[in-house]
Amino acid sequence: MKKVFYLSAVLLLLSGCREEEDGPFMNANNQATEIPAAETEEEETDMDSEPAQEPSALSEYSTEQIEYARVWLQLGANQEIDGLYVNKIPEGTPLNPDDETSAAYPEDVIQLEGSRLVDGSVTYSGNGDGTVNLYNVPLRWDGEYPAGEAFYTEIIENTELVAIDRGEDEEVIRLIELLQDQP
Prior knowledge:
Blueprint: H1 2-15, H2 37-49, H3 63-75, E1 84-89, E2 109-114, E3 121-126, E4 131-135, H4 149-157, E5 160-163, H5 169-176, E6 179-180
Parallel strand pairs: 1-6
Antiparallel strand pairs: 1-2, 2-3, 3-4, 4-5
Helix pairs in contact: 3-5
C-alpha cells in the first residue's frame, strides 16, 4: 500500500517536470495531458511483480530465536518440553570437556536442550542459508576416558548437513516462548 502511495507521489512530482506527451496529467505549464500508456503499464507491472508482504507473525522475534525454535521443531527429540535452553559454545571448546583427549569444535556451535534429560539436545552450527551442521554429540558424556582423539575426530568428520524447514508459525512461536537462559 505504501509503495503505491509513494509511486503515485513520485509520478505527481515528475509530472510537473515533463512536457506534454500522450495523456492527461499536469505538465510544467499546468496543462492537462495524458500519461503515456507504455510507461504506465511498465511501472504498474513493476509494482505488480512484487508480492504484497503481509506482516509475519514472527516479525517481532529475532532471527536467532526463530532459528532455535525451527531447529528444535525439526530435530528435537521431545516436542513436549517445559523450557528450551540455549548454550553457545565457542570454537575451540572440547567436545567432551571431561576428557583430555577430546577434539575441539572447529566452529562456534549452539546446543539446544530441554529442561529434562529425557528431552534430549541438539548441537549444531547455523550456515545462514537455511541449513545447519548437525553434530552427533550427547548432552552428557558417559563412558570410560580417555576415549582417544580418533573417537572425537570421527564425530566431527561425520557432522551432517541438514536443511531446516520453516515449520508452522504457531509452533515456532510456542517454542520461542519457551526459550530460557542456560540452566
